[in-house]
Give the backbone structure.
Amino acid sequence: MLSILLASLCAGGSIVACHEDRDPFAPSQKEQRAIALSTVVGDSSCTKLTFNITSPTAVTLTAPNVATCGNGLTMGGVDAVWNQAVSRRLRFRLRIINQDTVAVQLPIRVYLPTTGIAVITPTGGSSSTVISTNADSAITGGSVWLVGGTGILAVGDSTVRDTLMFTVQSPTTKARLLFQVSATAMPPIVPAIPAGWSAPLDTTLTFDVSGKRTTLKYRMYFGVAFKTTASGTDVVSFLSKYQGSIVGGEPGAFYVIQIPDPGSSAATDSILAAMRAETSIVAADNQYLRFPIHGRGRYPVEGDSINSRSSWFTGGAMAKWALRAIRSPQAWGCETGTYGSSLQSFAVLDRTFRQQDDLPTVTEVRAPALGPDSTLSGSGNRVARSHGIAVTSVVGDV
């Protein structure tokens, strides 16, 4: 049994719409959710290299300490080779290590903006003296290397060693290179929605909202709809935070999530409030075991005995029992305005009709192929002969 929240809506003159049971988590309310892909990046302190040329063939290097780097992508296993005689070439060999909590798609994008080059020696030297020579692409404002080939880089794994090459023009001998390292996170595998789930018909698992046992909500079953911008990571993190498991729902719309029994209505309400405060959630509510249905209607003043809405249900309201029995207030609730010169049309199918003075617009359509009804002859069948016009009069009056 999935959660039902009653929303009585009146629209377009449809009687059904006036007392329709609407479920915010039902397929008709579906929010098509495309799992958004997130990006994993490297901390700037872990993607920074500083070189210092000390002789025509020697260079010292300051590289990230992998052991002290936190979550994200980190440059590791870095070494540097300098050869002044061969085009003043500086070569870095390195790996990219995935120290994040999710796997990422290869290749890794290693971007060095021109603003990320800072010449230290000589002081105030130009960044244009450090020039990349083997970037996969040169874009306005920087260079990009694609590291690692194709496939998936699991958590804790590293790419194969790759080479980044530069020409360092005189008089620069020392500079800091601040790279921007990024990759697309692999969406976590969100558990599939089991088919055919229904909540147990057990009132001991619920709490009473109304105080009259007319509205019962489950303590441990929640309907949760995520925003279209939510990622697979968001869903998995949500389940982990609330110790939840997916037991039902509608693919692409919402999940029914079971959590450990909070034990009380207050604790359940507290958890629900926390769920609704999550930035990845668009809607959340308890699942219902029992709920009342309230039709929305109009209860007009109908004379001395019916002079207020409440009087429809007490005292003189007995005079209106027939109108309440056929749900007239709900039909009136669907009215969209005055009809003007065009009256609402309806049809009544009955055995026979007798023209009535107060219904001048009634048009009788006969079906002669059916033949005459011999049971309508004789004075003993006056009720049968007048039934059609009686029904038409009642409907027309309503």
Summary: Residues 136 and 349 are 79 Å apart (CA to CA). The chain has six helices and 18 strands. Confidence is low (pLDDT under 50) at residues 1-35.
